[in-house]
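Sharing in case it's useful to others searching the archive later.

Someone asked me privately for the predicted structure of Mesencephalic astrocyte-derived neurotrophic factor homolog, so I'm posting the question and my answer publicly. Question first, with the sequence:
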Amino acid sequence: MANVKLQSVCFVFTACLILVITEAKKKDERECEVCIGAVEKFKKATPDDVFSNTDKLEAAFRKFCKKLPKGGKENRFCYFVGGTEDAATGILNNLIKPLSYHLPPEKICQKLKNMDAQICELRYDVKPDFTKLNKMRVGELKKILSNWGEDNACKGCAEKSDFIKKVKELLPKYEPEEYKKLQAAEKTEL
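And my answer, the predicted structure tokens:
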């Protein structure tokens, strides 16, 4: 009888251990997404001969960071690693050397995360579902306009319907693919 209880306890313990291990191995799909995205974008934009010289690589990365829009997530990443002129930290060398060894972006970002955790806390904004504008809050509609740089486009807007109308009006200019989806969705509703 004691043997059966011991086997049961061992089975439950093993099952819990397996569950904990599998959960630990599952990682957040969006973890370090800005870091990985910025490093991949930089690697694609940089000629192969630059990777052999760390000084040239650092200069190329600083130039890359300078071209990024201010206030964007990738610009923030550059600030965290020391790629911008106003950066307070200087861990850029910890990005440049692994890049020169052609280490994958995921590994580079994990190393950077160990030095500064906020590097991997950066996330890209989730794209809104423009087919559900009527279900969005006014704050979300204002944020869409703000992200497009159209803060003043809806100064006289008082009602939610005014904001929806303005977003629909500007949608073809900023999100042409989403505009086509919206038109298709509106046709199927009719």
